[in-house]
Amino acid sequence: xxxxxxxxxxxxxxxxxxxxxxxxxxxxxxxxxxxxxxxxxxxxxxxxxxxxxxxxxxxxxxxxxxxxxxxxxxxxxxxxxxxxxxxxxxxxxxxxxxxxxxxxxxxxxxxxxxxxxxxxxxxxxxxxxxxxxxxxxx
Length: 138
Fold this sequence. Notes:
By secondary structure, the chain is of the alpha+beta class.
């Protein structure tokens, strides 16, 4: 399984978060593995995340004050970041209360053999994917 980023997601990350392509590439694995899943979120936030997940038929992660929507690519073993949203104002305080222990803040799960992507050989489009089968949410 590898993670990739659609052009739509790159545009939304730049527009809504002010993130460059390089920042999004660097943060992608961290967001997917450490982001808050609906089943681990407080009840009010879980309802919001589940609504987004059911509506898109996708995997949803909340990280920081943003929601990242991932979609499995049918013909590949890839998971694509489709779009990024800002969390509703009334739910942001629930995300601020989520804390990480010092033991897991900068580590990836053992299932990711490479850990944090290396900056060597970085190219702006090294995680780009534009499969036709990914529905793009606005």
